[in-house]
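Subject: Predicted fold for Dual-specificity RNA methyltransferase RlmN, 419 residues

User T.R. writes:
Posting the sequence so we have a shared reference for the thread.
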Amino acid sequence: MHSAANPIMPIPGLIDPVPVPRAVTPREDGRVDMLGLTRAQMKGALEEAGLDQKAAKLRSKQLFHWLYHRGETDFEKMTDLAKPMRLWMAERFIVGRPQVVEAQVSNDGTRKWLLRSDDGQDYEMVFIPDADRGTLCVSSQVGCTLNCSFCHTGTMRLVRNLTPGEIVGQVMLARDALGEWPKGSMASVNDDEADDEAQYTADGRMLTNIVMMGMGEPLYNFDHVRDALKLVMDGDGLALSKRRITLSTSGVVPMMARAAEEIGVNLAVSLHAVTKEVRDELVPLNRKYGIEELLQACADYPKANNARRITFEYVMIKDKNDSDADAHELVRLIRKYKLPAKVNLIPFNPWPGTDYECSSQERIRAFSTIVFEGGISAPVRTPRGRDIMAACGQLKSASEKKSKAEMKRLAEEKQAALG
Ligand code: SF4
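User M.O. replies:
I've generated the structure tokens; pasting them so everyone works from the same file.
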């Protein structure tokens, strides 16, 4: 399946893995892809290609606006650049997008895209429309090294970090697909011309929120995730408020303070269990950073307050983590650390080869009630996109499907490694 130049890379270790960095794949035509570059990087690329500093500064400002605010991919359409400049750029650069291998629509309106990078790696993104919002679930890695036992993505073997261009590219592609780039002239970047501001506001957009909850652990790809989200939040870029972005981690404790400092978006934590024994099984990273340590890091997360609560994700698995005692313990822990918190209860979404089952509706309701009575909001998430395997924990690209026998072998290997 994979050529010798691109061998399958083993995932090193169970709980402290090192994701494989991306080998840059040079384009055959020698042009450079601008997608994912910051203003400064664009300026650097233009200077390297031969523009003087002043010209590079001006052009990079214009390009930034065209790329990230307008979604333009064709230099020919960048009308405030002189024609020879457009040609000059098109000879040296491109503005790429992830390649779409497959686009599926669920019967509940959820959409899933299977994307391919230019070195042939597959990853997925999911769009979940609701009455009052539209959420794009973005991937940060191809596969995931953390092997959460309830999660399909964790069974993928090949893992590499996505680049900033591949991460922000998902958001841009979703805007392409939803037809949500603002129309209008370029006057706002060309200082003294007046423009009709209204043309730039796109009220009623479908894509309103982003969650870094697709494939991968975003805090294991910190720099690229941060750089991509900066482009998403930039007022002259995609201009999405940080209040509308949520980063979800399984609990990479040492990176959480940096995430607050350097990214500053909302935090979601995949808790899924309240005892060491069960969380060790469901989220093996727990062996490294335990529950108490994780909750302390949440309490220290400086962005958390009553207006911006930390979301705890809790997957409901039958006879595993769904008892009344678990619910009471969850309340006790959240209170102990005085966390401004909300708990999202996620009915387990089955996938081929898993031994887990979803808790019954009554059990989920009883669990939710106990947490609510403890003074903590605990809504039950409606599963979305299950029919196209787009729901939480179901993502896994088609090229990585494994046979049941292989899954069993992997489980045994894992068991042996845990000794
Ligand atoms: S739940 Fe998240 S961190 Fe765990 S294996 Fe799945 S993708 Fe990775």
